[in-house]
Each structure stands twice: as structure tokens, then as C-alpha cells.
Amino acid sequence: MRFGLLGPLQVTDSEGEEIRIGRPKLRLLLAVLLTHANTPVPLDRLMDMLWEHDPPESASFNVRTYIWTLRGLLSPTGQPETPISTDSRGYMIELGSEQLDSAMFEQLVSCGVDSCRQGEMSAAVDQLTKALGLWRGPAYQDIPHVAEPLVAAVRRLEERRLTAVEHLCDAWFSMGMYAEAVEELWEWVRRYPLRERLTEQLMVALHQVNRSAEALSAFGRLRSHLVEQTGMEPGSPLQALQRRILQSDTEPVSPVRTGLTSHRSNGRFDPKQLPPDVTTFIGRVKELAKLNTMLGARRLGQQGLVIIIHGPAGAGKSALAVHIGSMWAERFVDGQLYVNLQDAPPGMEPSKSIQVLGRFLRALGVSAGHVPPDAEEAAVLFRSIVAGREMLILLDNAADEGRVRSLLPGTSCTVVLVTSRTRLTGLCDVAAELQIDPLCPEDARAMLELHIGNVKTDVDVADLARLADLCEYLPVALQAAASRLNARPGWPMRCLIDRLADDRRRLDELAAGNVALRQSLKASYEVLRQSDHPDDDLAMRAACLISLATDGYVSTKDMASLLDVTLAEGDRAVQRLLDVYLLEAAGADHYRMNSLVRGFARELVNDALDIVGGCRTSRSRDLSRDHRG
């Protein structure tokens, strides 16, 4: 059985006969399941997507009825088998990539882009041509797009389609097949009149087949559209291309942009520094939809964007940033820069601005001897080089606003993604923000299953739920737990659960290789320790006292009593712990410190008793009670 989303919804059986899915709600439900193929979709999420977050009282019953109907339509005649399964996590359609055209398309495009980068242009042409041939019309053409995840999926597929077209033309250019590129590009430029890269490629192809007047006309049409709709002129690369054509330059006027090296033939460097994407990325549907909306709303070549992704230690901020960056990387034709601002040998200060600027400038082609030693001068040079470029910069693990601000590219059209364990409120004037929390229980269990599926084939659902709970649904902790289980194939899951149940050893158990939650928590605590603000010293003491004196739940009044300070001072301590995600809101004036943070804070007490030297032990014991209220 095969399914198609690259056009009207299409379902064909093993004989090639089409199975008609007539009712709109059934088509929408099937499209949702196909979009999340091989991943369980919880019932409540299906209801939200089918009724746009306003499901009727009968929604649960209706979804079950729709699933029953779909199973009947998709089951071979006289056979009970169906690709749709259900368990405690939700409903799932199980497919191989060859059964879903959008999955085949993604696979072929990835292979084609890789072939381009490796210089295998003939293979790239074959793969990308096959990928584009899978499209029968606009993606999800006859699906009512009431669900934002589907809108995001459509947008992403369209972007990947354009990426495939652009790489195919680059491959043709490298093989001298400019006439073929002209034929392909005319229609795409007509459909996307504001996409400068397509017009640039069309101008190159036309110029190389001695149709320079038409190339200049294409530039004029693009400029008219841009000025009329945005008030902006074409970007500097396109204007430079126009000048070269006007000068009757007979050399190839544009380099192929798909090589593995970052150096262009015209002396410019296009670095490709993003870390590898997480191949087992799970969940974050709403967050990805919001990020796609932010990036999609930005007009190519017209404006920059700064997005801060903040959340607790171990929540997967870096993985999310790399994932969305990889999804959009091909859009940023002038390269990507990356730095881990927390990356430093033990005992040394995290990367300083001048060090990061030096790395960025060298990656952009500035020789080491010409990098200014002064941070301000280096920042000015960096902004000058990046101005007018379409780049993506990922500033990972930022601890303070000042260091981030010094690395921002000014008026460039570059997008900057920042991840941080603190809220970085000082950047609210220049940045949009996205807060991420621990995974939902369903996604946490799905992540565990994905990581341990090859080792643990018979997993008890209750044990899986308990393990996810002990990991506080944090991806870093879940990954560490899965690694521990994979390293001991004969080890029952219950054995690790029993070990993690002892909160005194939980952080030790949640360490595997380079994955250690304790290091992430330490980085959050360092934000307070390295601060000179008196509220941060109070917040450090508060963290330790909460871990000793309560079950993790406190109010502002409890905090003031623990610290023996005024209510206002207690509230400021609470706010600082919230800012660095060592505390989380748990209701009106009630706050929770999760079990992993409490374990880390107790370690601090044992290692440095002077931090809580002034506390009153009797008062701490009196406050050791449940404040869930």
C-alpha cells in the first residue's frame, strides 16, 4: 500500500488500485497520521488538530469512529491487517519510507544534496530529478489545513522542493547544462517572483546561453516586485551579478554553491559549521511550528531575526536549535556559523567575545594576522563582513546578554539562534523568544522506546512511564537512561528504575559517556555563582535550603522564612531561581524544584557547607512539608 501527500491525498493498494477517502475529516485524520508516520499521536493531540483546539464533547468518540472507518478502508479485502495501530501512547500508522511519497522525496533530496557536495553531479541530477518527479501538485492539496503542524509540514515540503530545484540547477551548471536549467527555472521564477536565488540562477543560465538581455530583464522584473511589495532593493549578490552581465563578462558569473569546501571562487568564504542534526529527534511539534512560523514570516534577503530558545538544563534546547537550523540551512546560502559559548576546558572561563569573533572572522576568510585584537574593532569588522549576507548563526549555551549582544550582526539579513539556560531578558528589545519545557509524558516515552527499541523488545508500559517520570521528562536524562540500558542488554529496566528511585544516586546513574545532566545543572548554577548581584547570592542559598528542608514545593512566604528575610527578598530569590530554571511555577505563588535539581543542590551543600552556614536547621525541619496546596 502506498500513500501520497505531494498533491491531492492519494492511497493505492498493492494492485495499484486507488482507495478513495471521501470524507474531509477522514482525509484530515489520515494526513495527520501520515505526517507523523511511525510516531504515536496521542488522542488529545488528534482532537486538537482535527477541531483546531476546540473539540466538541463527542470528539473522543468521533476520533475512534474515524479510526475504525480508516482501518476498514485501508485493510486488504478479507484480511484483518491494517497499517494503523494503537496503544497507550495513541494512534500510529506504520510505513516504510518507500510507501510514502513525502518520505521518499525527503530521502532523495538528502541524497541529491550530498551528491552535489561530494562532486557527484550526474548522480545528483538523477536523484533530484526523481525527487521533483514525485510531486503531483501542491502538497496536501485537498486537505483542510486547520492544524498548524500540517501548515508547517506543507511549508517545509515546499521549501525542500525549492532547495531541490536550486541544487539541481547547480548540478546542471557544473556539467555545463545551462539550457536545461533555463527550461526548469522559468516556471519557478514565475511562481516565486521574490526568491532571489532562483532569479540569480536564471540570470546565470540565460547569460551562459547568450541570452543576456533576457537575464537583465529577469533582474528588472525581480527588482520591480521587490520595490513594489517590500520597498527594498535586490541583495548585493544579485546586484553584483547584474553588473557583471552588463560588463559582458564571458566567464561563468556565479559559482556552484554546493561544494563541500567553504571557499568560493570569488574569494568569499561560506562556512558550514552547524553540528550534525539529531537523527532521533522526537516531539516538539508546537515549538517547531512556532519556529517555522517565525522563520517563514521573514522575507528572504530583507530582514534579520534573533530568536532566543530558553529552558531548563537538559530540556534539549541545543538539539532543537540544531534541528530547526538544519531544516532551514539551505535557505542561508552564504553559510552557517556555530559556537558553544559554554565550551571551555575545566577551570577556564567560557569563550570570551573576542575569541568567538576571532573564530568567526577566520571562518569568513580573514587571515589570523588581520583579526583585530580589540573586541569592539573585531565586532565592527564582523558586522561589516556579514552585512548583506544570508547567514544562520547559532550561539549555543549563552549565559549572559552582554556576550550575545556583542556577537549580533547588526543590520544584516542574518538569522541568529541563541540557546540559554536563563531568560536573557536584557535582549527583549532585539529578540523574539521561545521557552521550551520538559517533554510531555507521551513524547518522553516515545523517546525512550526509540533509543532502546533495538535492545529491549519486550518493554512494560508502566515501567517505561516510571522511567520517564524519574528522568523528569528531560531529553538529556532520557538519553542517558537509554544509553545505560543499551550498554547492558541483559539488564532489566526495573533494575535501572530501582537505582534511579534512590535520589541520592540519581545524577550518578544519569551519566553515560558525554551525556551527563549534572554538568548541565552546574552550568545553570554558575550563572548565579559568577554574578555580583546580592539577589543571586540569596538565590544560591535558597536553592540549597529548598533541597534540604522541603519536598521541593515552596511559596514566597516559605522562602522568606527559610532564608530569614523579608517577603520582598524571598520573592526576589524565587524570581532569580525561576530565571535560571532551577525552580518552576506550580500554581498561584507555589513553586517546585524538581527531584534532579534537588539532588544537585544537596550535593552543593555537602561540597560547600559555608553556602548555608547561616541557616537555622530547626526552621528547615519545620518547613519540610508538602506545599502543593
From TrEMBL:
Residues 1-95 bind DNA. Transmembrane segments: none annotated. Keywords: DNA-binding, Transcription, Transcription regulation. Residues 252-273 are annotated as: Disordered. PROSITE patterns: OMPR_PHOB (PS51755). The keyword Transcription regulation applies. Residues 1-95 form the OmpR/PhoB-type domain. Coiled coil: none annotated. Pfam families: BTAD, Trans_reg_C. PANTHER family: TRANSCRIPTIONAL REGULATOR REDD, TRANSCRIPTIONAL REGULATOR REDD-RELATED. Belongs to the AfsR/DnrI/RedD regulatory family. This is BTAD domain-containing putative transcriptional regulator. It comes from Nonomuraea typhae. The lineage of its organism: Bacteria, Bacillati, Actinomycetota, Actinomycetes, Streptosporangiales.
